[in-house]
């Protein structure tokens, strides 16, 4: 094992969206033993770097489901944005079904509906299996705005038309299952060349076809001269599938969706039980401890 790739929400961080000390300790131990660690997340860089900094972790980050790869210094190594034409098609389909969505860009994440943006975070929390009270979940969700992880705007038009801004991902959310499935089916038209996944029960994560965690992880591993057989990937949801299938060692969180557990070679503890640390320590003993 020469490289560890870990998802963030539902995996590396707990239900409070905080990075537990045990997970940080295990990552630092892996790095000290010469193993590279990369975080692969659906978050943009601004939202992803905060818990890592607080835990004292410096590592590369595969952001926005693989649409962007950042060095440990935060420099952009690779970017695979949506084209304007692709975004307009997504906008039309989601708008016709009255589905809320946020856009993730090179200038951060943006929403036109503050209330719906809060519900997105609550949905992610609930998808981990943690039974948070409405008050607690709302407080966690509010932190996205308080900490500048998402910004409210009246319209996306200025961002879309700004040639200095790239749209990396669209995150759609609705409790209407029929609308969500219809939107997913329409967006999966091969002609649009989109990648559709999800990180929680009621959302859709939409990026360009080549912006996937697995593809980005392969690029990163190749740049370091590491084969995918020497990679361990840890995740919990459907936007992790591509990297879990690509890695030589695939680890599902204890709180992962059943379908995710089915495709993995190992199941660790939940994200509230330091599952990442448990998995890293196990394989660290088997590889370094030989």
From TrEMBL:
<dbReference type="InterPro" id="IPR006379">
    <property type="entry name" value="HAD-SF_hydro_IIB"/>
</dbReference>
<keyword id="KW-0378">Hydrolase</keyword>
<dbReference type="InterPro" id="IPR036412">
    <property type="entry name" value="HAD-like_sf"/>
</dbReference>
<protein>
    <submittedName>
        <fullName>Hydrolase</fullName>
    </submittedName>
</protein>
<dbReference type="InterPro" id="IPR023214">
    <property type="entry name" value="HAD_sf"/>
</dbReference>
<dbReference type="Pfam" id="PF08282">
    <property type="entry name" value="Hydrolase_3"/>
</dbReference>
<dbReference type="InterPro" id="IPR000150">
    <property type="entry name" value="Cof"/>
</dbReference>
<dbReference type="GO" id="GO:0005829">
    <property type="term" value="C:cytosol"/>
</dbReference>
<dbReference type="GO" id="GO:0000287">
    <property type="term" value="F:magnesium ion binding"/>
</dbReference>
<dbReference type="GO" id="GO:0016791">
    <property type="term" value="F:phosphatase activity"/>
</dbReference>
């Amino acid at each position: 094992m020469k490289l560890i790739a870990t998802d963030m929400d539902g995996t590396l961080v707990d239900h409070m969206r905080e990075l537990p000390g045990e997970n940080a300790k295990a990552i630092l131990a892996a790095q000290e033993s010469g193993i590279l660690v990369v975080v692969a997340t659906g978050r943009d860089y601004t939202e992803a770097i905060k818990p890592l900094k607080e835990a004292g972790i410096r590592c590369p980050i595969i952001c926005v489901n693989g649409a962007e790869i950042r060095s440990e210094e935060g420099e952009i190594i690779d970017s695979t944005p949506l084209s304007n034409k692709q975004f307009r098609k997504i906008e039309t389909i989601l708008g016709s079904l009255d589905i809320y969505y946020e856009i993730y860009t090179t200038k951060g994440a943006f929403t036109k509906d503050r209330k719906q943006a809060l519900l997105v975070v609550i949905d992610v929390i609930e998808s981990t299996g943690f039974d948070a009270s409405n008050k607690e979940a709302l407080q966690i969700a509010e932190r996205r705005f308080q900490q500048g992880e998402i910004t409210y705007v009246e319209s996306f038009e200025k961002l879309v038309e700004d040639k200095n801004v790239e749209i990396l991902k669209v995150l759609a959310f609705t409790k209407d299952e029929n609308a969500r499935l219809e939107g997913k089916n329409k967006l999966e038209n091969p002609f649009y060349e989109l990648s559709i996944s999800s990180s929680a029960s009621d959302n859709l994560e939409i990026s360009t076809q080549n912006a996937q965690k697995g593809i980005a992880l392969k690029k990163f591993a190749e740049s370091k001269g590491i084969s995918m057989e020497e990679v361990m990937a840890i995740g919990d949801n459907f936007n992790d599938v591509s990297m879990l299938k690509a890695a030589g060692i695939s680890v599902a969180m204890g709180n992962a969706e059943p379908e995710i557990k089915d495709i993995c070679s190992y199941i660790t503890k939940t994200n509230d039980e330091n599952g990442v640390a448990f998995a890293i320590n196990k394989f660290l003993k088997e590889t370094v401890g030989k």
